[in-house]
Amino acid sequence: MEEKLELMIEDARDKNERALAKLISHVEDRKTGWKDIMKSIYAKTGQTCVIGVTGSPGAGKSSLVGEFAKKLANLGYSIGIIAVDPSSPFSGGAVLGDRIRMRDISTYQNIFIRSMATRGMLGGLCQAARDVVRIMDFAGRDIVIIETVGVGQDEIEVVSAADYVVLVTYPGGGDSVQAIKAGVMEIADLFVVNKCDRDGADVIVSEISAMLDLSGDAGSETPQVIRTSALTKEGIDNLVDILSDFMNRKKKCPHLQMECVRQEVISIVEKEMASLIQERIAGNGNMEKELKLILSGKSDPYSAAEKLMNRFTVTKNLERSTGRRL
Amino acid sequence: MGEGSKIRVLIAKPGLDGHERGAHVVVYGLRDEGFEVIYTGIRQSPAQIVSAAVQEDVDVVGLSILSGAHISLTKKVMQGLKAKGADDILVTVGGIIPEEDKKTLKKMGVEGVFTSGAKIKDIAAFIRAKLRESS
Questions:
Q1: Is the per-residue pLDDT at B53 higher than 80?
Q2: What is the pLDDT, as a whole number, of residue A217?
Q3: What is the mean pLDDT of chain A?
Q4: Which residues of A touch B (CB under 8 A)?
Q5: Are the Cβ atoms of A29 and B6 closer than 8 angstroms?
Q6: Do A91 and B39 make contact, defined as CB atoms within 8 angstroms?
Q7: Of A101-115, A206-220, A254-268, A280-294, where does the model show the most confidence?
Q8: Which residues of A touch B5 (CB under 8 A)?
């Protein structure tokens, strides 16, 4: 590994914020040597507690994270926050505004906030986010909070990789209960009805409780449903207590560990395959030829895909037998 | 710039003025130019801005100031960045800046000053050119 990178890693471990930030960028941008960085820090990670926070846009996730992160920091924990916002699929740019809601804690010595755009990478967000969690873990953060809008498979995958998942909803969201039905219900360890200073909070609490009573296996622990308000601070202490309690109870479950590692390896292989496919199948002009055939009515997407796949497999086999890249 | 690199910009409003329309226009304009723009809202202290710039590892800090306090606020941000070893970050200032103050800002190390009427395309081109120079 380059000496510059080694130095950066050392400085990040020594609590240098600038080095930590640079290290995150290097890995997030997938710059040369990023994988060496991850390989070299991996053995020194696994100490941190990862809290995933998800919920529909406008549920108050950032404000809530700001409030409970402040309390946890005051308890002496050192904290990393990763706030994920979507990239524009058109320009590739992004507006990352979660810091607006966390201004109180932006100068806390033991809180490090990092905004992250989804960047539309093929299956990439989850791995990139996981990498950033790991870097913060390596840099000695006791708790890493990762906040995403719980929409889409990718984002659900991100939070489901957390040790503890908090699902945030709010009254007046209209179909806020509808929104949490799809896929996130199963992964949540705690349901938070935020903005409980507003009318209708009790209705949401009972609706969620009713839903939870119907789902889940008999005998399994039913997740709690609590009320908070980032505005009046109601329920924040309760939330902090629940989180601290979880951190004290947290032990390593061998099966879960194995499952996590399996998921991660699969996700890395998928990502590598995807870029291989883009580079080798789509990149050499054969794709264009097939597309023209489809447009002129001489082929169809299914046959084209088959042909491209065949060519790819043939090339791969040839390479294996001759020992050189074609 | 590396493989998956994006230009990251922090747009920040130091001081007490609440006129954030201009900042909004720049934020959305630069997003459409393909930049990742971190916006921290109004009434930020120089310390908050410096901390955000360091943690987010931005390439550019754009300060939007319409209060008339641009000299002293910018000076504090520049000093803060220097103290954190982050004075290689490109700093630009926008807002209502009298002609005679532009020189003072540039002497402090501010690379670009954009007042009303500045085109987003020009701001984006300026940032790209400056970052190319320094990389």
A1: yes
A2: 65
A3: 86
A4: 17-18, 21-22, 24-26, 28-32, 87-88, 90-97, 99-100, 103, 106-107, 112-115, 117, 119, 121
A5: yes
A6: no
A7: A101-115
A8: 29, 31
**What confidence score (pLDDT) does residue A122 get?**
46
What are residue B9's DSSP bridge partners?
B37, B60
Residue of A nearest to B36 (CA): A94
Question: Which CATH number applies to A45-253?
Answer: 3.40.50.300
B88 within some domain: yes
Q: In what helix (H) or strand (E) does residue A311 lie, and over which residues does it extend?
A: helix A301-322
Residue B40 contacts A where some CB pair is shorter than 8 Å: yes
CB A22 within 8 A of CB A137: no
B56: domain CATH number is 3.40.50.280
Closest to A113 in 3D by CA, of A132, A92, A91: A132
What pLDDT digit, counting tens, does each position of B2-46 carry? 456 899 999 999 999 899 999 999 999 999 999 999 999 999 999
Q: Are B27 and B37 in contact (CB under 8 A)?
A: yes
Q: Which domain holds residue B122?
A: 8-134
With respect to residue B113, please indicate whether it lies within any of the assigned structural domains: yes
Cβ neighbours of residue A105 closer than 8 Å, sequence gap 6 or more = A66, A69, A70, A73, A111, A113
Residues in A closer than 8 angstroms to B44, CB to CB, are 103
SS3 state at A8: helix
Rounded to the nearest angstrom, the minimum Cα separation between B103 and chain A is 30
- Contact: B6, A117; criterion CB under 8 Å: yes
Q: Is residue B98 scored above 70 in pLDDT?
A: yes
pTM of the shown model: 0.89
